[in-house]
Amino acid sequence: MRTLRFVSAALGAAAIATALAAAPASAATDGAATLRAAGVDAAKLAPGWKVVGDQIVWNGGETTLSLSPSAASNCQANYVCLYEHRDFGGRRLQFRDPGLKNLVDYGFNDQMSSWHNRRGVDARWYYNIGSGTSRCMQANSQSSYVGNADNDQASSLRIYTSASAC
Q1: Does the pTM exceed 0.85?
Q2: Boundaries of domain holding 118
Q3: Number of folded domains in the chain?
Q4: Nearest alpha carbon to residue 84 among 73, 97, 70
Q5: Alpha-helical runs (H) found in 70-113
Q6: What is the mean pLDDT of each run of 10 residues along the chain (166 residues)?
Q7: Is 90 part of any domain?
Q8: Buried/exposed code over 29-44 (b: 16+ C-beta within 10 A; e: otherwise)
Q9: Looking at the domain assignment, is residue 153 inside a domain?
Q10: CATH classification at residue 128
Q11: How far apart, in whole angstroms, are the C-alpha atoms of residue 124 and residue 69?
């Protein structure tokens, strides 16, 4: 009897494993598998995210994180974009709305190497969360490389409501 239960349990587990393996990737409604494949820890992201294509999206597109390499021309009008690598390469994190953004919440802490401000207002990135060493990002400007000293140092971003903040 004990052997029969073991065989039955083993067959049931095998059937479940086979069904899960056969399930399409789109069956994961929360996108966690896509994030894992991109090296992003979903547990460390700000709440309210969803995966749409090759991007993580918050607040209906106010903030997006691309999971694939992109180019400077991909920074949409009226957004501030941060890039993982110099020359606008690697993953792109972009914000539209004013205010302070904690890059830790978006899986992008200490990863920025270049940026593009396509807004008509100034922005500023910080080594810490809204304080300490910072660098200005004037309205409608860009930097293809922040320099060796500033590379991979950004922990937060503040988008202002005017072009006279810097």
Answers
A1: no
A2: 30-159
A3: 1
A4: 70
A5: none
A6: 35 32 38 78 86 88 82 82 94 96 95 97 95 96 97 98 94
A7: yes
A8: eebeebbeebebebee
A9: yes
A10: 2.60.20.10
A11: 23
